[in-house]
Each structure stands twice: as C-alpha cells, then as structure tokens.
Amino acid sequence: MKKALIIVDVQNDFCEGGALAVPGASEIIPYINLLMEENAYDQVVLTQDWHPAGHKSFASSNGRKVGESIILNGVPQFMWPDHCIQGTFGAEFHKDLNRDKVTHIVQKGKNIEIDSYSGFQDNNHFMKTGLDDFLKYHDIQLVEIVGLALDYCVKFTAQDAVANGYVTCLHFNGTRAVNVKPDNARDAIYEMIEKGVTVLG
C-alpha cells in the first residue's frame, strides 16, 4: 500500500510570533521531521495557505473584528486576522521544517472570495486544489496527516481524505489546535474519528 505524508500549513504566520499563531505550533516540527526520517513515504506533500491581500476571510476586509462570523458565499466564515498573504514572510514555511523529502506543494485559499481550510478543496466545495488528482496519479492509498491547525485545516483535510477514499491517519503528536473555544481540539478529534480517521498517539 503506497502512502503519503500530508503536512498541513506549517507556515510562519501559524507559528509563534505569527499573525495567527497556534499555541505550541513549533513543538510539532521535530516530530514531523522525525516521521520523514524514520518512514519511507512514497510522497510527502505540503499544503500552504496562500491568500491574496484583501481576502474575504480577513476581518479587515469586511470591517469586522477578529472572532466575529459572517456568511460568505452561503457558508459561515470565521473572521481571521490577515495571514499567509502571498509572497510574505508569514506565508513561508517555517525554517525548521525539513523539506528535503517534499515531493509536492499544494497552495490553497487563493480565491479571494472563499476560504479553503482543506488541502483538497475550498470551503464551498466548488474548486479542487489538485491534491486528490496528485495522490491518485501516484497510486497513494494511505495518507498520514500532521500540521496546523488541528481544529480547522487539519480536520477538514483529514475528513476530505476519507471522503476521497484514502485510509487516513492523524498523528496526534504532530498537530496543535487554535482552540478558539476550549473544547475545539477535543471536538475535532471526535469528529474525525466519527468520519473514519484513525488517530495515532
């Protein structure tokens, strides 16, 4: 069974000091590097939040406060601080992440009108990123997922992996949550298990 490691959004803006820092984010990087060192993955894929300036998911683009919610193109949208803007330092991958074995990069959130948490598709399920095509082209059947953040982009990437027919595993030690609400991480784990994701310690 061919397997891929999908590393979700390990970018400067999601790490300590970034515009949308996830608590403990940089703690997962040595774990992810070790996974790549100790396992023979057929493919190693990075997803990268890659927003145009003025993206509609930004609070500043809507005259709203961070943490508010609006309906954006028919779906609820949490208002985020400006983050991972194309070509900025914040959008770059963290310098400590070993990219020697990376075989593919998927950029998401490029459409200014709609956010894209999942590495597979946007939040409206209108546009695919090409990740599924890439994995199927390379006969990948099993995906292991790590990265940021557990309760958003990791969760939706894992759920979409199951929906697209992959045996899907989440490395709990390779992810951290935003935890806008205290139970978000716990709830995300339960949701993923219910959808068929295997959670590895």
UniProtKB/TrEMBL annotation:
Pathway annotation from the record: Cofactor biosynthesis; nicotinate biosynthesis; nicotinate from nicotinamide: step 1/1
Top enzyme category: hydrolase
EC number(s) per entry: 3.5.1.19
Keywords in alphabetical order: Hydrolase, Metal-binding, Pyridine nucleotide biosynthesis
Domain Isochorismatase-like as annotated: residue spans: 4-199
Keyword field contains Hydrolase: yes
Domain of life: Bacteria
Family according to the record: Belongs to the isochorismatase family.
Protein name: nicotinamidase
Source organism phylogeny: Bacteria, Pseudomonadati, Bacteroidota, Flavobacteriia, Flavobacteriales
